[in-house]
Specification:
The structure is a single chain. This protein is α+β, with helices and mostly antiparallel strands. It folds into three domains: about 5-50, RNA-binding S4 domain (Structural Genomics Hypothetical 15.5 Kd Protein In mrcA-pckA Intergenic Region, Chain A); about 60-125 and about 205-235, 2-Layer Sandwich (Alpha-Beta Plaits); about 130-200, Alpha-Beta Plaits, CATH 3.30.70. The chain is about 25% helix and about 25% strand. The strands form two sheets. Strands 5, 6, 7, 8, 9, 10, 11, 12 and 13 form a nine-stranded mixed sheet that branches. A four-stranded antiparallel sheet has the order 2-1-3-4. A hairpin with a 4-residue loop joins β9 and β10. α1 (about 5-10) packs across α2 (about 15-25). The longest helix is centred in the last third of the chain and has 11 residues, at about 220-230.
Length: about 240
């Protein structure tokens, strides 16, 4: 692969930007200066400004989404989750998997694998998303039963979901869909109210509670493999 194409693919800048850096002598191949943007980097160690540039290939990361931030690529009025990522990752086409409402916090996944993202949010894959909610009242047995059979929201009937009490005026909700305001609408449909909502798990991945709001980390190889298996991509 051409050196300039490789560096651009790893989020080190646009093709023109990385060419300028190569020509300025900021790039080394196996410790030796290389000023040729067309040089073949295959099999070589690439260093930019003293830092090795490794090929991440397909990757996923988790963010602890804070309150008041939109799950969107850009917005002129409100901060977005993309604003919380470094420019390098944005250049690598790292995008959120599904969405969380502006006032919903917790686990939000990102990946540069569009097919993996699509499979993770497809209802037919039944990849559960688990939430903790502060509610108007503790879920009742009747509410739990309605969730298990599917809540009629008027415009559609939600797939069966799991609802359980998680303390006084608190609930744990697991759904395999992710339509607009779905969890809040489901709770409202059974006569309850969501006051606060936090996602704590997405399939096999649990929120790393050591992450401060707005912070993120890459999934390790084991977590990525488990996520791919949950999405059915391990079958390919």
């Amino acid at each position: 692969m051409r050196l300039d194409r490789y560096l651009s693919a790893q989020g080190c800048g646009s093709r023109s930007e990385v060419r300028d850096r190569i020509r300025a002598g900021e790039v080394l191949l196996d410790g030796k200066s290389c000023r040729d943007p067309a040089a073949d980097m295959t099999g070589h160690t690439v260093t930019l400004r003293g830092q090795e540039v490794k090929d991440r290939g397909v990757f996923c990361l988790m963010m602890n989404k804070p309150d008041g931030v939109l799950t969107a690529a850009r917005d002129e009025r409100c901060p977005t989750v993309m604003d919380l990522l470094p420019e390098k990752l944005r250049r690598m086409k790292c995008m959120p998997v599904g969405r969380l409402d502006k006032d919903t916090t917790g686990l939000l996944l990102f990946t540069n694998d569009g097919q993996l993202a699509h499979r993770l949010i497809a209802p037919k894959r039944h990849v559960e998303k688990v939430y903790l909610a502060r509610t108007g009242h503790t879920p009742t047995a009747d509410e739990i039963a309605v969730f298990s059979s599917g809540v009629d929201l008027g415009d559609f009937v939600a797939l069966p979901a799991r609802l359980s009490a998680a303390g006084e005026c608190a609930a744990r909700i697991a759904v395999c869909e992710g339509k607009f305001h779905q969890v809040k609408r489901m709770m409202a449909a059974v006569g309850n109210e969501v006051i606060e909502l936090k996602r704590i798990a997405f399939g096999p991945i649990a929120l790393d509670e050591s992450l401060a709001p707005g912070a993120f980390r890459f999934l390790d190889d084991g977590e990525l493999a488990a996520l791919r298996e949950a999405a059915g991509r391990s079958e390919e």
